[in-house]
Amino acid sequence: MDLKKILEEAILKIENIKTTEELASFYQEYLGKTGKVTDLMKLMKDIPNEEKKAFGMEVNNIKTTLHAEVEKKNKYFEEKKILDKIDNTKLVDLTIPSSKKIKGSLHPITIVQNKVIDIFLSMGFTVEDGNEIETEYNNFEAVNVPKNHPARDMQDTFYLDNGQVLKTHTSAAQNRIMKKYGTPLKAIFPGRCFRNEELDASHENTFFQIEGMMIDKNVSISNLIYFMKEMLTNVFGKEINVRLRPGFFPFVEPGFELDISCPYCGGKGCRVCKQGGWIELCPCGMIHPNVLKMGGIDPDEYQGFAFGLGFSRLAMMNFDITEIRLLNSGNIKALSQAKIK
Ligand code: FA5
User: Has residue 341 got a pLDDT over 60?
Assistant: First the structure.
């Protein structure tokens, strides 16, 4: 009997085993109670005495070798099972930095508008709405700009087929608000304005203004200066001085251009204020008696101030934006760089 051959065949078989089931049946075939190795042991009694020892040793060798091989294969299957499991699992590497979530934010115009609104609310003003599409009367005639008045050239706009216009300034709401509330009156009305403009870094065809109006007995230019100074100091978060220069607008008399001390250099002179120390910010004045009359208010009894703050430009100053067209661009990359001061 060729025991060596039996061992070689068994090892070859074990090497080709691919599953644990095959390994289990191999075990039964060779090492089980009725397996081939056990059968060899049973042959012992028929072996001549002088060969018994060598035969026994050889069969034992087969037995221990096959046990060791089965054990090795078993271990291989166990490790393979674990490795397959790892391969099929999506590994989570907790050390990888998480992807950055992009947070939305309010538009710079909205941020500044909310700021200005809060300040005026705290000073007892109400906030009113204006229309974007207005009658020609409200936009022009009611603020003392009759047909063919040269001031209309300064505010060319988009005329609709029905004769209405896209409002050129927030002053267009003055007449409606005076008629609605009468006196005394303290209101601001922010809104979008439209003009047929030559576009450049500081002129848009669509921009924002905030109009303010205070009407009562004994209202004077001092009240105007007080409220503007208070609002601007709060917007910029530092003491802002204002000065008035004469300016012409048909709906105010006297009319002014309000300048502010440069919030960047404190009035010393810099690139932003073109070394002058002052920045032109907001036209304003005492409401013209004709405008009060058209609003149903007696100018002999009441006076008022009005201002028209261009807050697209205020937002630009607040956020260091040097190109007005960015504001309407929807360019999130550029707008999100606007840092609130
Ligand atoms: C007026 O619109 C007047 N209604 C303001 C006013 C109200 C004066 C009450 C007196 C009393 P003006 O055309 O200057 O004025 O515009 C006011 C502000 O709006 C300007 O100072 C500027 O900041 C802004 N503005 C005007 N045109 C544009 C434009 N095309 N693009 C961006 N901002 C503009």
Answer: no
